[in-house]
# Entry
Amino acid sequence: MPHEEAFKTRTIALRANDDVATATAVLNALEGVNARALTDRPAILMSYTLPEHTLADLVGQLVDSGFHPIDGPLERLRLALIAYGEDVQRHNLDAPAIAVKPRDAFSRIYQHHPHGDADETTPEESRHYR
# Structure
């Protein structure tokens, strides 16, 4: 079962002359993608799970189908940051789990370790310079 951080909900804005309903249908045809058109602007709100899909893949699917996402500098920066974050998350999901010792193991080791000063020098001997 995917981790809760793997579920993504993103908004992609389209140009004003694009048919948002058709673009939504294109995304809904993909397995694991739930998309709906926003009513206040030409944009699509979509939900997907990260291992199967990324925002870059879904935007590429829209471009291949003839739709044009807004291509302003801020939108490109937003998409680039999201793409980077999703790439890192996908990489981390593929990484094997690290075997971590429980906290109790370290406390038991500490309890069995000899404590105190191991030096046999007395304070009187330390006061004399040699």
Summary: Residues 7-94 form a domain with the Alpha-Beta Plaits fold (CATH 3.30.70.100).
